[in-house]
Amino acid sequence: MERAEDRFRSNPHIHNREEMIIWLMEEYSQSLVRVAYTYVKQEQLAEDIVQEVFVKCYKNLHLFRQESSYKTWLYRHSVSRINWTDKM
Q1: Which of 8, 53, 56, 60 has the fewest Cβ atoms within 10 Å of its own Cβ atom?
Q2: CA 78 to CA 80: how far, in whole Å?
C-alpha cells in the first residue's frame, strides 16, 4: 500500500510550502480532528485545535527533519496542543 508521504514525493504539483500545507490538510485533517475529539469531546474545539496545529506547522514547516512521517509530526503537535488546552 502506498503511503501518503510517497504520494507527496511523487506529486509534481507541490512546489512550495503553501501547496504543501494544503496537501497536508487534505490528507490529515479528518483523522486529526477525530483524534482531538477523542480527547476534548467537543467537535468545535477539536476543529479549532487542528486548525491551530496546521497554522503552527505551516510556520514551522522548514523545521520538519523527516525523522518521522508527516502524520506523526502533525499528531505530536496535536497531542501537545490538546495537553495545553487541558491545562487551561
Answers
A1: 60
A2: 5
